[in-house]
Amino acid sequence: MSDLLTRNTDDNGITTLTLNQPERRNSLSMDMLDALSQALTDIEADGATRVVVLAASGKVFSAGHDLKEIRDQLDSQAFQLALFNRCSEVMQQVVNLSRPVIARVAGVATAAGCQLVASCDLAVAADTARFATPGVNIGLFCSTPMVALSRNVSRKHAMEMLLTGDMISATRAEQLGLINRCVDESELDEAVFTMARTIAGKSGHTLKIGKGAFYKQLEMPLNEAYAYTARVMAENMRADDAREGICAFLDKREPEWKDS
């Protein structure tokens, strides 16, 4: 792995990716985005990973894009477009990854850093964490972070964050639905990895089917969503793990997943 990003996989198949540039506030520079993209590509091809935890070193989860990098390229519209497109691609990689992704947020997550949290399937934050989309304060509206944010919280709450640029607490983020849980800072790892282990104990094949279907049906009208998910469930029933899971439940025993 790059020095920008560390990777560790434990015996439960939980892979922790850690943004590791605290001196730069774990900014999503082009290099950091490339490192994260490569890590996600590697995990997709990796049979050992069942759940991904996305964490960060230091007191800032991610401050978003590297403003110094942007300032150095202020006259290059080509670079700016490439950067924002690259970031959008990485966010979609998180969503499209066949494994569940849990954000472990121990510090501040702003702008594209907040976007990254919103793009993860689940998020657990310490009660000391804070969140914002503050681009409006520097004349650069958080338009791409808006995509993930508006798909996680209600329209008016998203607009309030985007239009004011104000920082919100982890408690408020939980109330809005931006994160799943706000826990005491001392209990963050326990909360994150208990959740990760629970999910890792499920059928990997079933999780892949379910995650993909969840995001796809969200974009459909109600009748199309039901028709699509009925087909998904019928196809899911043909899987070895579905048959094993049903039999194990009826036999009152633990299932033995084949991930197929």
Architecture overview:
By secondary structure, this protein is an alpha/beta fold. The protein folds into two domains: 5-200, 2-enoyl-CoA Hydratase, Chain A, domain 1 (Alpha-Beta Complex), CATH 3.90.226; 204-250, Lyase 2-enoyl-coa Hydratase, Chain  A, domain 2 (Orthogonal Bundle). It has eleven helices and ten strands. The protein has helices spanning 30-44, 67-72, 77-96, 112-119, 143-150, 155-164, 170-176, 188-200, 204-218, 222-236, 240-250, and strands spanning 5-9, 14-19, 51-56, 60-62, 101-105, 108-110, 122-126, 130-132, 168-169, 181-183. The strands form two sheets. A six-stranded mixed sheet has the order 1-2-3-5-7-10, with helices on both faces. Strands 4-6-8-9 form a four-stranded mixed sheet. Strand 1 and strand 2 (14-19) form a beta hairpin. Helix 3 (77-96) runs parallel beside helix 4. It is globular. The relative contact order is 0.11.
